[in-house]
Amino acid sequence: MEATPAPIWANYISPSGLKDLIWNTVPYLRERVPDTPFLRIIAEDIDAHTGDDSVLSYFRLCLAAHHTTVATYVPTDVDSKIRGLLWRDTKDLPTLRAMAQVAMEMHTWTLDGFSLRTVQCSEHGIVSGHDGEWLSVAAGALGRFLSLGHEEDAAAVHDAVHAELLRESRAFFDVCAQPGRELDTMRLAMSITHNLGDLNQGISFWSGAARASNSARQFERLAQENADGYDGVFKWPSALYKELLASEGHRHYPLRAIKPLRRSPALMLPLGPFFDDYGATLAQSQELNVAEKAETLEALVRGCKKVPNQHGYYRAIAGFKEASQRVFDQCVDAMPNAAQKLLKEPDMRQRIAIPRRSFESAYVKRVETMRRQVAATTKQL
Length: 381
Prior knowledge:
By secondary structure, the chain is mainly alpha-helical. It has helices spanning about 15-25, 35-45, 50-70, 80-90, 95-105, 130-150, 150-175, 180-205, 215-220, 235-245, 275-285, 290-305, 310-325, 325-335, 335-345, 345-355, 355-375; strands at about 120, 125-130. It contains 17 helices and 2 strands.
């Protein structure tokens, strides 16, 4: 009697285990399950799937899990699977094409309620870190098709990646050119630089023919200072990121243990370091009681010490205090003595006391300077 083939997840986390992680970080989404294609995927029962059938169903679940949680405090750890491992494990062309189709659909999935790390760029649409996640998955498809010699399939994915990179570069220049959108320019610099890094992560799984392909030469390491791809467009956001934002691109581990922050999408983190409004949201939230706000404030205070050179947590504390001195004082009184002492340190007090406008003005001036530099070297602005 022929043995039943094992499901692909025999080597990875089980579907039920992955779903438990999803509901742990976004419990409020249970009631939204029918609303979107990816939430419907999460609701599917695939535990009985085996062999090749399990590859596509598990890949779809991993994509849905990643899209749903990647902008939350505790993302599901499926990056390597959707960027490389599941592609590498698959040789069947119909299955690969079906996986690529789902990957293309992923780029159309809504971000409403799933991320606050977005920038609206008029006719160019929304740019966010989710675009980088998609680029890394598309790179997985592209590399696999290239390595197996499926040129037509590879060309279609190549064109889709190219179109996304063009969209992001044009969005950056358009927003940068608009007076009053200097902070959005900084936010775009953060997202786009991370997105290019995600694309590189997907390419890192390539081997053989893919490694030596024109796609590798065109798409790899675009954020480097000497990169000439796309007429060197991406050196501008990369320069802003390296100079002023690199310390803000951490994974926010200090906030991961604060479970009350997972209660509502309104409590998700936006793009740093501009966290004054986020701090105000925490202070004024009806979703959190005083003890929970105190726990969060303590995590921000300790995070200022744990994450060197970042500014975002200081701005969140400043915004919290500015929004409600009364709630701030209540939360400070409820914090452990050690956290209260940290809050009273001269450096901490000085940083929190910096007015929002003064803090943000340095970023505004840097973009204004860069705008003139770009205008002098390109016709884009």
